[in-house]
Amino acid sequence: MKSPALKDYVQLVRAPAALTVLGDTVAGSAAAGLRLSGRRLLLPFSSVAFYWAGMALNDWADRKLDAVERPERPIPSGRVSAGAALGTGAALTAAGLGLAALGGGRMAVAVPLAASVWAYDTVFKPTPAGPLAMAVCRTLDVLLGAGGETRRAVTAAAAVGVHTLGVTALSTGEVHGANPNTARAALATTGVATTLAVSGPACTRWNRLLSVAAGSGYAGFVGRAQADAIRDPSAKMVRHATKTGIHGMVPLQASLAAKRSVFGAALVAAALPIARRLSRKVSPT
Question: Quick one: which of 68, 135, 261, 282 could link to 161 by a disulfide (CB 3.0–4.6 Å)?
């Protein structure tokens, strides 16, 4: 087999989708009242490394199933070997831990985060506990941005975790369709995540207004797609709702960050149009 091209690895790790994870540590930092500056700017890149590691491990763990259901993916198509995918996942996990350490992140959060990524892909994903395991990963990623002030970021982390729980549960129907009740549950988690995002203290009235605006945008953007999946839980509609849910992480993160940092919220929000445009070339699911 010839050596994989760069585009094969881009598809393996769903590279553009990492734009939806950059805001996790921004939201966590803002919730903790910390500035994401200096070496702490490495923390979002630590999140990206963990996210890409998870995608590579996902395809490594699902390689036999993908050979039947998604033969176009890099491993079953023969463009990337299973060993190369596993090695990529391991290298990116190490990079995530290294960046977390250099960025001043708490290793008491970074190490469990890395372990959770591996546990989700290699153990929990095909089980009923899969969505909860993925939610734990994203919850810890938000807390990574909070440094030593993790208690102050619990609500922000819970908002992202609840959103992730709903999106991941619904995503199990991407190939064969979903039960309408699963879509209803996903829509309910969107409501809970919205409430968590816009509640709690904000620095100023303008911060509050911006947080509510971003939270409302999140609720409408994600909720509409999930409502469509309730009416028509076919695989096509579920894939659309899942993709929208992944992209919807950005306005949710912006709503959380806006309560303390307008600039941080604006930076996070800027990722959404880029992520949506790039998803036409590389699917995030």
Answer: 135
